Amino acid sequence: MESLHAVYSTLMKDRTPGIRRGLMDVIDPRDRLIAIRGGRGVGKTRFLLDFCGEHYPEDPAALYVNISNLFLAREGLYSFIERFYKLGGKVLLLDQLHEYPEWDEEIRAAYDRFTSVQFVFTISSLFNVETSAYLQGVARVYDLNGLSFREFIELESGHHFPTFAFQQIIESHEEIAREIAEQVRPLAYIRNYLHYGYYPLYLEKKSPTDYLLRNISQTLDFDIPYLNQIDLKYLWKLKELLYMVAIERYHNVNISKLSHGVGISRATVLNYLHYLKDARLLTLLFDREDDIENGLKPNQFYIHNPNLLRTICLENASASAIRKSFFVSQVSAVARLNFAMNGDFLVDGIHEVSVHAEGDKVHPKDLTIQLVDMVERGSEKAIPLWLTGFLY
Fold this sequence. Notes:
Elements: H1 2-14, E1 33-38, H2 44-55, E2 62-66, H3 70-75, H4 77-86, E3 91-95, H5 103-113, E4 118-124, E5 140-143, H6 149-157, H7 166-181, H8 187-197, H9 208-228, H10 235-247, H11 255-262, H12 266-278, E6 282-285, E7 300-303, H13 306-313, H14 319-331, E8 337-338, E9 345-347, E10 351-357, E11 369-373, E12 382-384
Parallel strand pairs: 1-4, 1-5, 2-3, 3-4, 10-11, 11-12
Antiparallel strand pairs: 6-7, 8-9, 9-10
Helix pairs in contact: 4-5, 6-8, 8-13, 9-13, 11-12
């Protein structure tokens, strides 16, 4: 146990300068069972350490442990927690908990038995804690997304900005854009954000393309097959499908075309699309508002964020695809997106939105809200697209 505390102490001291994520204000630190869920690379480990640093600074009763530690493999999760409790432990932060077999059953047993211990853990976005027989209605689940455009600008400029609801942006975008532009030139940051700004590990000066390619590969080779029991011989099909989706110009889902192109059945294509969505490599849009989407054929698909799109397509990603991927990555974190009949997207079942470049021919203005790329300030229903990066 002493060696684990030593590792934890070193991690806390060696953290690179970052940003206080907005999710920190959403979480109720009094909850005893907190799950932080997110895709690869969005900063779950950093957030876990920041959470402890903010709420339990230098508290000897708090401990961070990566679940891959071989000590846990030998002792077992429940037995380790029991020993932690007996030694006076009160706050246990477990990183990558989903990698431990039957983790939800053991963490629930420990939660029920050691009632004075708080558990905060990270898991992959692939896991639906809300439907777990052991954790449903017990664990509080929070989704950690990549950096918003707002957070990226704060990191780069040192200025601090509030978040705005989508309705606020619609109603007051001219005033909001003016106030932000008085402090920074937002369009001066957009190119770098689209290239590497969604993933906070850019702060460690790693090559964004190499880093994201490795993340994509690990997600496709290990994360998705581990949960969904995909035969190893089909992994290349999963990669081929992701590439076909990325280069699709019109974003419309044609299951027969994908099935023929990849050489797998229609049913398998549909399953794979949902796996890629759960891994936060894709965003799927449906024409209905049901909360349960598994098994449904989506109307459209988008690569989850522009950093991934640029990495997969390299120089072949179209400007239209990039701007729409940006919109999806920002808005889907806080609102429900559906397929729209008149515009490009339907936000929260209310707002039909078109995303386009300045000067593009678009749908009639009385039908949709116009989000315009590469304009600093808008007018009336023509809203700067970059403002959707200030939703979280």
